[in-house]
Amino acid sequence: MDRDITSYSVEGRIGEGAHGLVFKARHLLTGREVALKKILIKNLEDGIPINVMREIKALQLMRCKYIIKLYDMFPRGMSLVLVLEYMCSGLWEMLHHNQQELTIPRVKAYAQMLLKGTRYMHAHYVMHRDLKPANLLINHEGILKIADLGLARLYWPDGGRPYSHQVATRWYRAPELLYGARFYSEKVDLWSIGCIIAEMITKQPLFAGESDIEQLAIVLQHLGTPTEETWPGHTKLPDYNKITFPESTPTPWQDLLPDVGPEAIDLVRSFVLYDANKRISAKDALRHTWFHANPSPATMEEMPKPYFNKPK
Description:
The protein is of the alpha+beta class. Helix content is 28%, strand content 17%. It has a five-stranded antiparallel β-sheet, covered by helices on one side. The longest helix has 20 residues, at 104-123.
């Protein structure tokens, strides 16, 4: 693509993120719809922000049908413009604004796409660290793709490198992060996936805290007070001794996910575990019996029409 804003016809604003605006545009030469993510560089002497560089590097590395594509990038004044694949909707909109019911076959189809994208990332030693419905976008064909890799990082399987614990949106944040863990792995993404699948099925967040402390309290209340057996080493996490919670016994999963079938409960429970090492991998989850039980995942022809973002 041409590296100049004059090569695009901007059709309207479609979003606003922490680091800039997103516009729908059309490449004049090819007619391709794209999203232009305009990122303001506050201080040119400091260069491109590290999180933006991480997103660019991650997107350049990823070549997967279920991860959003970065076509190009170019400078414009005090900004950097990323030319991204245009996605007309997202899972958040599907959960909150779409008039068509998100049926179980459709949930299964979206879950499979999420797992395939995550499997690809993890196979390339990239952890997303902010999986949530708002970062899962859907195109005209109903294909779900992982987006917003601003918090993505390469990880090492031996786990010998510290990272920031201030990652992941609160409702989808793994408990080790809530306790301030600096050493963790791609397993934090797996916890998020369990929360997302549960939310798709029930249309309600699995754990919805108003603050980090309340978030942790809700998790502990529903999963029960952790022990060395259920969560080895949790008492050594940096923030473990900063606050105490009442002893609690686990809430039965049938009460936590009412009117949800046993296969679906088993899959969600396989992700939502205190012990990160026991969380089911994206690769193994794709073979779970839930995906092979009736009703089966929807075909592309059966996918719901996405809720289209309107230019602002």
